[in-house]
Amino acid sequence: MDIHWGANWGLRLAIAAPMIAALSLGLFRFGLMDFRLPLLGVAVATAIAAVALVLAIIGLVWGGINGRALAALVIALAVLFVPLNTMRRGAAVPAIHDITTDLKNPPQFEAVQNIRSPSDNSLALDAKVLAQQEQHYNVQAAVLDYAPTAAFDIVLGAVQAMGWQVVQATRGRGTIEASVQTPLFGFIDDVVIRLSPEGKNTRVDMRSASRVGVSDLGANAARIEAFMQTLNDN
Question: CA 192 → CA 37, 78, 97, 180, distances in Å?
Answer without folding.
Answer: 29, 36, 14, 11
